[in-house]
Structure of TetR/AcrR family transcriptional regulator:
Amino acid sequence: MSEPSARLTRAQQRRRSEDRILAAARRIFAELGYDRTTIRAVASAAGVDAGLVMHYFGSKDLLFARASEAPADELPGGTSDEVAEALLTSLGRRLTEEPTASLAVLRSMLTNADAADRYRAAGEPQLKHLTEAIPTPDADLRASLLSAIVHGVLAERYLLRLTNLADASPEQIVDLLRPCFQSLATPPPTAE
Amino acid sequence: MSEPSARLTRAQQRRRSEDRILAAARRIFAELGYDRTTIRAVASAAGVDAGLVMHYFGSKDLLFARASEAPADELPGGTSDEVAEALLTSLGRRLTEEPTASLAVLRSMLTNADAADRYRAAGEPQLKHLTEAIPTPDADLRASLLSAIVHGVLAERYLLRLTNLADASPEQIVDLLRPCFQSLATPPPTAE
DNA sequence: ACCCTCGGTCAACGGCCGTAGAATGAACCG
DNA sequence: CGGTTCATTCTACGGCCGTTGACCGAGGGT
């Protein structure tokens, strides 16, 4: 009996507004970073008043926290080769479907302590995972280098939009990086 | 008759103040990035008034431009192997002596268009150089990946200070990255 | 029909920032 | 010594921002 178009219950209204605010926040945080993003701009992009954003999310920090929530990729365990391939697959996916929420963190991490913490927290389990799979004493450094490479590529492709990286196909990037990842994940087979 | 300690000519005074302002600006821009750095903070760290900074440098943008001037590394030409090794050497040097001026750019490039342009401009000749030395059709992409790796490592070591990367010795990092760089700089010897 | 609830707006405050311009006093030059 | 230059400081303006609290009006339960 309810009209299919207009009428919304209060809960629906609220949810719709919150979703629109979060979507706008993710987009703008990812585009401008934490500092240059203003609550007023987010509100305006979401079609609401700035006061409403405060009302629902409490503060700019909390809004950023909510907007940058992103499920971390689960890397399956296994040999170092398998983990390297899994990391490549994860990178390939992130090169295919632009991960706006994690881009917000990536964009802001160099100038905002909260975002930096969030970045560390998101990367830590993956780092631990990688470290455990790499059978060398310097496993932790190797894992960190792998992480640095992944994020360096993502940053230059999506944030800096360096044309070479932005135009390349995910497969091409992944294929070029494969030997790179393998050399870091596995001890050199040359000496034995 | 001039005291060895105190008396300074006007030109000396000016030069001393400009140098102190530039040094403070480099440090703070590198630490906080463009946006969070205030002229007042730079002036205070340099022991002068904010008006003086404006008087000498004209604007915050111009101050940033002056503070982030850094001579680019010249990469010698040669085979792809040699260029890869030269890039590694350059990275090793930047891991040994912290390059404050380029850290200011690195810190700010994700949130400031000027810094992003400066970053592109600084990297472009090196990229061209790398591209010319790599004998594959996808040389430009390979060069960009190499650049992304270098800057990813620098950012995580100096800006994010991820402990694994911050504690490692430059030699260790360079050695681990060598096969990585070689695999990107040279076509795979497997297929032939 | 009543009234409480609550989504939403509006106007304002206090703070920090980049920047401009007047004022001061010492260094320089004749 | 007198006047000019110039390094330096002080004060203030206008703007943007995060945040607040009063206010409005339409649900929605009873």
Q: What stands out?
A: The two ends of chain B are 80 Å apart (CA to CA). The interface with chain A takes residues 32-33, 35-36, 106-111, 116, 119-120, 127, 138, 140-145, 147-153, 155-156, 159-160, 162, 164-165, 168, 172-173, 176-177, 179-180, 183-184, 188 of chain B (CB under 8 Å). Confidence is low (pLDDT under 50) at residues 1-5 of chain B. Chain B has two domains: 10-67, 80-185.
